[in-house]
Specification:
443 residues, alpha/beta, 9-stranded mixed sheet, 4-stranded antiparallel sheet, 12 helices, 21 strands, 31% helix, globular, binds 5'-O-[hydroxy(phenylacetyl)phosphoryl]adenosine
Length: 443
C-alpha cells in the first residue's frame, strides 16, 4: 500500500464535539468533573481525605480548575505505600480488572479499573486509532504483550470499541508475526517502536513488504524519535503514530499524535494534564519543559489527583492543524527518576540491586546497567562485581554464577539480560549519587 501523504490525509474524529471543543467549554466540563472527583475521593479514599485534612483543605474549597493548584500531589511512592488496593474509591467487588507495571522495589505498581473505566480506556484508544485513519473495517495486529502490562489489552479494547478486527498476537516470534500479518490481511499493527522497526526490517529482508496490506502502526510504551518513525514508515510504506499512557492513569490512550506529528493530543476531558517544575511544583508556561502531572477527572476505580508521572515534556494549548483543540504534549525528553524503558518494560536499577542482594554469596551489590540498541532492539547488559574468592576460582564456577545471575535478573525484571561478571572494585564508584545506568541508545 502506498504511504498516504499529508496532503491526502482526511482528518477523522471519533468525538468531534470533545476533540474540537472550545477552550471555555472544555474548562467548564473539566471543572465540573474535578469538583465531583475531589468530593468523591475525599468521601471514599482515606489517603486523600487525610492528605487534604493535613493542609486544612475541604472539597468545598475546590470550585473548578482554577483551584487545582491547592490540591496536594500524588506520587508513585504513595501508590506503593497503599499497594495493592488502598487507593480504591469503590468496593473491591466493583473492580473489573487490574493492570500493572514494574515498580521501584520489586513490587508492582498496580492500577484497578471498574467496568466503566475499562470502557473509557477503550474509547480513548479508539479515538487514537481513528486519528491514525483506522475504521471498523480495519484489522489490527496487536504485538504488544498481553498480561498485567497494558499494551496488549489497551489496543485490544480500542479495536473492540472501534468495531475493528483485533488480532491478539502478543509479543515475540517475529517469523510467525509476519506470517499472520500476511495471512490475516492485517491493515495496522501496534507494538513498541523498537519492535516495529525490527519487524519492518525483518519483513524487508524476507521480501514480503509488498504482500502486506498494512497502512498504519500505533507505537508507544517507550521513547522514540521522529527519525525512527520515518524509518518505519519508509520501509513499510505506512503512517506510524505515537501513543502514550501509563497504567496508573489508563494504559495506552492517554495521548496520541495525529498525522501532523507536532505533539501528542491529550484526552483532557478524562485526564487533565499539568506541566510543573519538578523541583518547586510551580506550573510551567506552554512550551516550557517540566514534569507531566495528571488528574483523572472521571476515573471510578482508582482516581488519581495530581499524579506525578516523572515524565518530562512541555505542553501546547494552541489548536492543531488537524482542527483538534486537545492540547499537545511533546515527545518526552526524559524522566525525573532513573527508570529506563527497555523493550517496552520499565526497569529500575533498584530492582537489579534487590535481586542481587537476594542471591546471597558470590556477587557484590556493585553493578552497572548498560543499555544498547542492536539491530533496532534494546539490549540490556548488567555488569556485576564478583566477590574476591570467586575470581581466583575456576572458570566453570564463574560460568555457573553468571547463568544464575542472568536467571535471577530475568525473573526480577521480566526481560532477558546479558550478564558480565567483573573483578571486585572494577566498577567505578562515583562521588555522590551513584550512576547506575549508561544508556547508549539514541532516542
Ligand atoms: O507503557 C502504557 C503503554 C502501552 C503506552 C502501550 C503505549 C503503548 P506503563 O507500563 O505504566 O504503561 O509505563 C508508563 O512508559 O510513564 C513513560 O515513561 C513510558 N511511555 C509510555 N508511552 C510512551 C511514549 C505503558 N509513547 C511509562 N513515549 C510512562 C515515551 C512512553 N515514553
Amino acid at each position: 500500500m502506498p504511504k498516504i501523504s499529508l496532503e491526502n490525509w482526511k482528518e477523522r474524529y471519533r468525538d468531534p464535539k470533545i476533540e474540537c471543543m472550545g477552550r471555555d467549554e472544555m474548562t467548564t466540563l473539566q471543572s465540573e468533573r474535578l469538583v465531583k472527583q475531589v468530593k468523591n475521593v475525599y468521601d471514599h479514599v482515606e489517603f486523600y481525605r487525610r492528605k487534604m485534612d493535613e493542609i486544612g483543605l475541604k472539597p468545598e474549597d475546590i470550585h473548578g480548575l482554577e483551584d487545582i493548584g491547592k490540591l496536594p500531589f500524588t506520587t508513585k511512592e504513595d501508590l506503593r505505600d497503599n499497594y495493592p488496593f488502598g487507593l480504591l474509591a469503590v468496593p473491591q467487588e466493583k473492580i473489573a480488572r487490574v493492570q500493572g507495571t514494574s515498580g521501584t522495589t520489586g513490587k508492582l505498581t498496580l492500577a484497578s479499573y471498574t467496568k466503566k473505566d475499562v470502557e473509557v480506556w477503550g474509547e480513548c484508544v479508539a479515538r487514537g486509532l481513528t486519528m491514525a485513519g483506522l475504521t471498523s473495517e480495519d484489522r489490527i495486529h496487536i504485538c504488544y504483550g498481553y498480561g498485567l502490562f497494558t499494551g496488549g489489552m489497551g489496543l485490544d479494547l480500542g479495536a473492540q470499541a472501534l468495531g475493528a478486527m483485533a488480532i491478539p498476537m502478543s509479543s515475540g516470534n517475529t517469523k510467525r508475526q509476519l506470517m499472520c500479518m500476511e495471512d490475516f490481511g492485517a491493515t495496522a499493527f501496534g507494538c513498541t517502536p523498537s519492535y516495529a522497526l525490527y519487524l519492518a526490517e525483518a519483513a524487508e529482508e524476507a521480501g514480503i513488504v509488498d504482500r502486506l496490506q498494512l497502512k498504519a502502526s500505533v507505537n508507544g510504551a517507550e521513547p522514540w524519535t521522529n527519525e525512527m518513525r520515518q524509518k518505519i514508515e519508509d520501509i513499510l510504506h505506512i503512517n506510524s503514530f505515537d501513543i502514550y499512557g501509563l497504567c496508573e492513569v489508563t494504559g495506552p490512550g492517554v495521548a496520541v499524535d495525529c498525522i501532523h506529528h507536532k505533539g501528542l493530543h491529550v484526552y483532557e476531558d478524562y485526564f487533565y494534564p499539568e506541566v510543573i517544575n519538578p523541583a518547586t511544583g510551580a506550573p510551567c508556561e506552554d512550551g516550557e519543559e517540566g514534569e507531566l502531572v495528571f488528574t483523572t477527572l472521571a476515573k471510578e476505580g482508582m482516581p488519581l489527583i495530581r499524579y506525578r508521572t516523572k515524565d518530562l515534556t512541555s505542553i501546547d494549548h494552541k489548536q492543531c492543524a488537524c482542527g483538534r483543540t486537545l492540547p499537545r504534549i511533546q515527545k518526552f525528553t526524559g524522566r525525573t527518576d532513573d527508570m529506563k524503558v527497555i523493550r517496552g518494560v520499565n526497569v529500575f536499577p533498584t530492582q537489579v540491586e534487590t535481586a542481587l542482594l537476594s542471591m546471597g554469596g558470590g556477587v557484590a551489590p556493585h553493578y552497572m546497567l548498560i543499555v544498547d540498541r542492536e539491530n533496532n532492539l534494546d539490549v540490556l547488559t548488567v555488569m556485576v562485581e564478583v566477590s574476591e574468592e570467586y575470581f581466583s576460582d575456576e572458570i566453570r564456577k564463574l560460568d555457573e554464577l553468571r547463568d544464575k545471575v542472568a536467571a535471577v535478573l530475568k525473573q526480577a525484571l521480566g526481560i532477558a539480560v546479558r550478564v558480565k561478571l567483573v573483578e571486585p572494585k572494577s566498577i567505578q564508584c562515583s562521588e555522590g549519587k551513584a550512576k547506575r545506568v549508561i544508556d547508549n541508545r539514541i532516542l
